[in-house]
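Quick one: structure for this chain?
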Amino acid sequence: MTVQRIGRVVAIGGGHGLSMVLGALVDRCEQLTAVVSVADDGGSSGRLRRDLGIVAPGDMRRCLVALAPPGIVRDALEYRFDTGVLDGHPAGNVILASLLQVEDDLVAVMDAMGDMVGAKGRVLPATSGRIDLIATAARGTVKGQVAVSESAEIEALRFSPDDPEVPAEVLSAIAEADVVVVGPGSLYTSVLAALVPGVIGALEKTDALVVYVANLAAEPSETTGYDLADHIDAVRNHGLVADLVLAGDDAVVPSTEVERVVLADLAATGTDTHDPAKLAAALDGLAARIRA
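Got it. Here's what it folds into:
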């Protein structure tokens, strides 16, 4: 059976959510571009960021893995050392760190790494350099991705620097896209972390269909107690007004959002996480509105 290709797709976010979306769409798009937050400051990424003064490589690595063909190279990218000075570091993070020692242009590094692993798509950083997340939360002002993820009752997220540079390649990809997918993923530390002012500005100008994929459940601390309405309010309050919102079929749709929310069976069996095949089918159904 021939799979209908969606067209030019840009997927925005970070962490596991974005890599899952890429894995779902990699064979369904004419052109696929990931726009990835580089604000992580925990784990291997945080150590390399502090020790070498580079952007966090981990989420970019995950996205490259999602776009790489199966085999020894993809497996090697995810291999995590468990002894010696590299203990805890995935090999892909170390390779990216080494490339960043010889080339300052982050886009050039990601393109070179994509060529090395045979990625079927492009991975771009949401910002040209390092940024920090700063949140206003119940416990006051907190700084850093890890600290934000452990906070509750977050009121607002901002960045340091407050308007970081966005690569021209990111702006071009959004401008030329047929579909832009934002989310799913940790609301503040993955999804909104990638929506810096320059990216929001590009989304406001694009003619693409912009789809916000809402999480299927709240996360401990960061979004404790959130329902669909809370997720939609949070992204809108931070500048994202999507054309459509894709949510799980058991979500309660706010009365003010009935025309924009599309419900679908998206969950992997017995879980509250997205099933890649179900998500791909649902996104293809939304994109069909463009092809019609």
